Amino acid sequence: MTHGPVRVLFVDHSPIVGGAQLTLVEHLRTLDRARFHPMVLCASNADELQRLYRAAGAEVHLASLPRLRTPSPGVPLRLFRSARLLRALVARLDADVVVASTSRTAYIAALALAGSGVPLVWWVHDFQFNRVIFRVASRFAAAIICVSDAIRTFYGGQRDARFHVIPVGSRLHHALESLDPEAVSRERARWGYSDTDVVIGFMGRLVAEKGAEDLVHAVAALHASDPRVKLLVVGTGRGQANDVEGALHALVERNGWRFVSFAGFQSDEALYYKLFDVLALPSRAAEGYAMSAVQAMLAGTPVVVTAVGGMMELVRDRETGLLVPPCSPERMSSAIAELISDSALRERVIAAGQDQVMRNNRVEVTTRQAEAVYERVARRRMRRHATRAN
Fold it and tell me: Could you state, in order of their start, the residue ranges of all structural domains in the chain?
């Protein structure tokens, strides 16, 4: 094992900027450079992610990793070739630890590192792994980091010491410290919102499982009785599986719903979380642990989320936010209306939510927890090398 900082190679295949990728960017920025040297292997067509990873101070390497979910006779060969490429890169970069952040990269890395002596850490953000394959392939992982206890339970890791629960971390609190309140007022005015308007915000990918259509219908019902209520949708679905961005625009245009605005992708997240009066996250499928809800709570914006996956660990109903069933625009509408009308409830969940995420979800906290995992598996490798040398 090399001396000096632990050389950690993060492997991510995604060509799009999603929650897992933004989490990794935050993590890279915060890693202790005296103890860790971060490197990233990412998709060769992920131009924006390459820029973000480099801006976070990581050494970036490019590769094209095959899709594994599309059945075809060529999948095993592509998997083997990618594993061979990764194994050669790990050796060339003298990586001490490899961290795989998606199911595709986890499987490829498990095959690539088998018998190599280089420890593999899986960083599991969602419920997308096939559980049978997970059990088989996870034997090659030295440690498995889950972003919620719901994920650890889903994959049967409650009694496995290799499993660790480390929630999503954010550094948005730093951006909030320097945010000019006048900039928020100007941005609200740019979208045509008055001081009395109530802006319901959505921040995320516009794909079917995120449930943005349910939120559009929920806000339509609210707007019918209170014209002050508006919806601002931030995010895009272009280039992603299950993209519903075009369908959402068509729905709004067909009904003449001028209270709905689409902002597309926005990089200044702090500005928009402060612009929103309420953040609503209407996920239809299980969320591991949504970055958008964490960031809204850091910004002091009350949240209404669906009770799916790890969201119930982040949001305690009527304490740190409001929980509603998935696929229920009516219940989403009622919960938002209650937050708008009940100032005592609103202030209580804002204060409790902000306190919780400042204690548990600041990236400085979550990164230190992950660093301890990296060092632990790296030390095991060091001890094995020392034993063989003697």
Answer: 6-169+363-389, 172-360
